[in-house]
Amino acid sequence: LERDALFRKKHNIHVSGSNIPSPLQSFTELKLRHNCKSYLLRNLGELGFKELTPIQRQAIPVLLSGRECFACAPTGSGKTFAFVCPILMKLERASKDGIRAVILCPTHELAAQTTRECKKLVKGKKFYIKLMTKQLTKSADFSQQPCDILISTPYRVHYAVRKRKLDLSKVEYLVLDEADKLFELGLVKQVDAVVKACSNPSILRSLFSATLPDTVEELARTIMHDAVRIIIGRKNS
Ligand code: ADP
Ligand code: MG
């Protein structure tokens, strides 16, 4: 569509792939067209989010449409909300049926930061969001506790899976955040193991990164199917 192309140009959004959903114009469109719940819009208001950032405009409708994506956007450009928003909208409410979403971050500090951001977004709404800690990897009853979204380094999830403390077979959403750093830190083996452990055939995977070196792009292409590629600005700036 001509209109989409112009809008993307205006916001410096570059996409490749087939049948890519239109970028979002506004939070109002998120509400009216995608049925975003009022608790989420209210929390965004409280956080001072007035306009969507470019990565949010494109990645949110792609993920909501059930397409996988890998995306490159600068640090500080709002990537967290770009992947958490579709997860919250799709999961709808808390459940006790096992872990439904996993977000992998390169370091425990980044995982803790992402957990804090998620918790702000779900304020006033019941959702089980858990940061994987050292104690949790060892706790015998981890899988008995409700958890909608698990946020962790690949190392800790992989460890817990190996020790059979964690069942990822029902995971519907898997996010690899800061994928360039996952590579730099040599965590690809653990990431691969977690990707394999998330064995639900209808899983939706996504990858977010500040830069997109060939290694990361290759990983994205090997683990995803018919993924949409989204670049904000330039690829490795
Ligand atoms: P990135 O992961 O791309 O480095 P973050 O997701 O950590 O960026 O977001 C950086 C900051 O911008 C956070 O404090 C976040 O709350 C804020 N932010 C995200 N989206 C918006 C928005 N649409 N409007 C205003 N602030 C936003
Ligand atoms: Mg980030």
Automatic annotation (TrEMBL):
<comment type="similarity">
    <text>Belongs to the DEAD box helicase family. DDX52/ROK1 subfamily.</text>
</comment>
<feature type="domain" description="Helicase ATP-binding">
    <location>
        <begin position="60"/>
        <end position="230"/>
    </location>
</feature>
<protein>
    <recommendedName>
        <fullName>RNA helicase</fullName>
    </recommendedName>
</protein>
